[in-house]
Amino acid sequence: MNIRVIAGKYGGRTIAAPNGHTTHPMSERIRNSLFNSIGDEIKDAVVLDAFAGSGSIGIEAISRGAASATFLDKDPLAGRILEENIKTLGIEAQATTFHGGVGAWTTRTNVRYDIIIADPPYNNMQLSTVVKLFKLLKPNGLMVLSYPGRGESPPGTNGVVVVDNRSYGTAALTFYRLVV
C-alpha cells in the first residue's frame, strides 16, 4: 500500500505502508485536516510521532517544516518500512526512530516535544500509555490523539487541557495543550 505526502517539501511523493491490520494509516483527509488545524505551529517544531507505523504523520510534519521528528513503533514490519521511507526521502538527519513499545520508551527519554501526535491501534488504544506521553510535552506544547470516533473516550490529566475535538465519522481527533 502507498500513502501520499500531502503538502510541503515532499508533497506529492508517495511512501510505503504495511498491508494488513497491524497498522491503520491515518487517512489523507484526516491528516490534511490535522495539519491545516495546527498551521504554522509545525514550522521548526520538534515532533513525536507515537505509534508511527509507516511514519506518514512525522514525515508530513517534516515535509511541512518541522525541525525534526521522532518515530516510535514496535511492529517489526512497520519499522522496516518506516526506515525505508526515511531513507527514500533523504530525511535521515531530521528523523530518529525507536523500535519498541511507546510505554517503555517514555520511561527512558528526557526529550520534550513541541508537538506529539499519537495514533495508537484502534483495536488496542493503550490509553494508560497515551497518558504517559503528556509528560513529554514542552510548556504550551500540543498533543493530538487519534482514536475511534465511537466507543472510546479521550483520556485527560492534570495540567493538560482539551482545546479542540474533531470527528470524521469512524475516527476522531482530540487536541490537548500543556498549560503552564
Please explain how this structure is put together:
The structure is a single chain. β8 and β9 (171-178) form a beta hairpin. The longest helix has 14 residues, at 76-89. The chain has a single domain (2-20, 27-178), classed as Rossmann fold (3-Layer(aba) Sandwich), CATH 3.40.50. It has 5 helices and 9 strands. The protein has 180 residues and is an alpha/beta fold. The radius of gyration is 15 Å and the shape is globular.
Element pattern in H and E: EEHEHEHEHEHEEE
For the secondary structure, the number of strands is 9
Describe the main β-sheet briefly: 7 strands, mixed
Helix content: 25-40%
Low-confidence stretches: none
What is the top-level CATH class? Alpha Beta
Strand content: 25-35%
Q: Tally the helices: what do you get?
A: 5
CATH superfamily: Vaccinia Virus protein VP39
* Terminus-to-terminus distance: 42 Å
Q: Give me the CATH fold name.
A: Rossmann fold
